[in-house]
Design goal:
Strand content: 15-25%
Structural class: alpha/beta
Number of domains: 2
Shape: globular
CATH class of the largest domain: Alpha Beta
Number of strands: 24
Length: 427
């Protein structure tokens, strides 16, 4: 396991260009299974999750190579296999194998899908969509002699179920209409890839209409990562510095920026670039929601900023029990109270500490604390952070951070918080 050592307390300033979106790249990579031929995907981030996705594709016989900024994926000659549990349990995006394999092979043996374990993340909506399109589930295998178009109305928005449905619908006879779909930027970027691969997809205000298509290799440029952009922007007010993210104005971050602006943080635009500076003058309150609401994946990162200044309230309406990271933040002095849906962040004195990254975004929140705290901090299990942040060390150094990434696999020890074993108070 890797660990990060940070000597914090410095004001951070500078410019960062976000890498390609993790949440856009992963479904595109898996969708190439359903698009026989050679696909060219540019701006794929060199992160842990995309590396695992490529290994899974290679299990099916895909040939993958990277030339400069372009990832070339050849899926012309694939054979159905069940990838090892060791691989699929590493990333949640392996659940996209359901749609991709049903579309290409007509079957998939359900595996254990991984990712962050902050909450229960069922696949019931994915299976519901597959069954509506004519698939049957029996003893761990979902199969379909033929997929047939249908009307599917989701009760709530789900990025994963929307993406799997779109893949399957391209292979379904006739027309499929999807209502209640997710419309996040990375979903629309995924649609752009499918269209480049020959899909017939029409987007309406509240639906997607998909007609059967014979897919082939496609070509697309992965959009910049809005979650990475938001994470780095927070370092401006958190360290009393000024951080600019280039191209961020096009990333639909309005719901993220609005509560910061209302709190007194300076949000400034220069063309396509966004800069955050200044500090909050009052408590911050956020409520997560599907797009265009406040992104749940930027919820943990704002908690340290709340704690350092006037406190704040977080209402989580996307994932249940996403507040387990607060136990880790407590190591850095962040005081809070929570139940399954809400957290009250108390004004706190943030200090240096040692803690383990509990998940991807919770790990990023630990790094934010460490960068603001005077003295040396250590973040263990840093592989969690590197799953979603490309060039993490070098980008932070470009802002003036004193940070070093170590591979400490041979020297692992307990990942518990060393200086505060108490749990966050439940309310």
């Amino acid at each position: 396991m890797k660990e990060i050592i940070i000597s914090g307390g410095k004001s951070l300033s500078g410019r960062i260009e976000p890498s390609g979106s993790k949440n856009a790249a992963l479904p595109i990579i898996f969708a190439t299974i359903a698009a026989p031929g050679i696909s060219y995907i540019s701006n794929v981030s060199d992160i842990g999750d995309t590396a695992v996705a490529v290994k899974i594709l290679e299990c099916f016989g895909a040939k993958v190579k990277r030339v400069g900024n372009i990832t070339e994926i050849n899926t012309e000659n694939l054979e159905y296999v069940l990838p090892s549990r060791e691989l699929t349990r590493k990333i949640r995006a392996s659940s996209y194998l359901i749609g991709a394999c049903l579309a290409r092979f007509g079957k998939f043996h359900l595996s254990e899908f991984g990712g962050c374990s902050f909450c229960n993340r069922p696949i019931d909506m994915h299976l519901y969509a597959a069954e509506k399109l004519g698939a049957e589930y029996n003893r761990g295998e979902i199969s379909a002699k033929k997929l047939v178009g249908a009307k599917i109305d989701f009760e709530k928005q789900s990025v994963g179920a929307t993406i799997n449905s779109l893949i399957m619908a391209t292979a379904a006879e006739g027309e499929t209409v999807l209502f209640g779909v997710a419309k996040e930027p990375h979903v629309r970027a995924f649609v752009e890839f499918l269209v480049s691969a020959g899909a017939d997809i029409t987007e309406n205000e509240d639906s997607f209409i998909v007609k059967k298509s014979n897919l082939h290799g496609g070509s697309v440029k992965v959009i910049p990562d809005m979650i990475e952009a938001g994470t780095y922007l927070l370092l401006g007010p958190m360290t009393e510095g000024s951080v600019t993210v280039t191209g961020a104005a096009a990333l639909e971050l309005e719901s993220f920026l609005e509560p910061l602006s209302l709190s007194g943080v300076s949000v400034s635009y220069d063309g396509e670039d966004i800069t955050l500076s200044g500090t909050p003058k009052r408590p911050i309150s956020i409520k997560t929601a599907p797009h265009p609401g406040y992104p749940t994946d930027l919820q943990p990162q704002i908690a340290p900023l709340m704690a350092k200044y006037f406190g704040g309230r977080i209402e989580e309406c996307v994932w249940q029990n996403r507040f387990s990271y607060l136990d880790s933040l407590m190591c850095f002095g962040v005081m809070s109270e929570r139940n399954t849906e809400r957290a009250l962040i108390r004004p706190s004195i943030i200090h240096s500490s040692t803690a383990a990254a509990p998940d991807l975004r919770g790990g990023a929140a630990l790094a934010i604390c460490a960068l603001a705290a005077r003295g040396e901090s250590k973040i263990k299990n840093a592989d969690m952070i590197l799953r979603g942040y490309s060039d993490f060390e070098s980008k932070l150094k470009s802002l003036g951070a004193n940070i070093k990434l170590y591979d400490n696999s041979a020297n692992e020890e307990s990942t518990a918080c060393l200086n505060n074993p108490n749990k966050t108070k439940e309310v």
